[in-house]
Amino acid sequence: MSPEKMEESFHLSLEAIQVLQNALETSYLDAYIETIENFIDQYRVRVIDGVPSEADAQRLEAIYKKLEQIPLTAEERRKLAQLLLLKGGKTEHLQPNHQLTPDSIGFLFVYLIEQLTPAKQQTKILDLSVGMGNLVLTLLLNLQLAQRDVQATGVDIDETLLSVAAATSEWTQAPLHLFHQDGLQELLIDPMDIAVSDLPVGYYPQDEKAASFLTSAPEGEGHSFAHHLLMEQAMNYVKEDG
After folding, report:
1. Which of 169, 177, 205, 224 is buried deepest, with most CB atoms within 10 A?
2. Closest CA to 182 of 164, 165, 159
3. How, if at all, do strands 203-204 and 224-225 pair?
4. Are 84 and 17 in contact (CB under 8 A)?
């Protein structure tokens, strides 16, 4: 896609999000989720109890009609979503652990996975702190472009971030299964080939649960580091040769 088409898609999508944000009196991220869900639903405006208003709905329909005429590949949709979420991060305060993972890190992992896994074998990827999903979606969509058979499982305790990931993954038709739960609790998932994550840095408040991990803080020395526990937890769900 030409830079001009991406720019046009960005400005139209941003306008649609802002119209919904004002109409619904909601946050940017919630308006993003609603907008992407409308895109998935054949670019139709969802009106509930008269909201958005008829005028706003007509304005959105006009924007959606223009967007529908711009063909986007799955990876182009991911890049557009990334730009929209970066814009949202400038208008609404996001804590550091909620920031998007840069594409440079994602592309590095794409290269590493291509080098470390058999080309003709399915690869299952695990992300225990999936957040808004940019890292794992970068992996999935670019590995698919390289003709790789991939699937991923993502876990996160933050409902809003997970909803963002769910909307974007459905819009891009990425093979991503998501679970809303604490990544340090027991997971009902199959063993994975690879674990990746842009881990949140901080302390894990549940000392009793943390004590079951080898990487937990010594007794009496306060909370354990969540990122240490998540690394250990991820290895519990990776195959022996993963």
Report:
1. 169
2. 159
3. antiparallel
4. yes
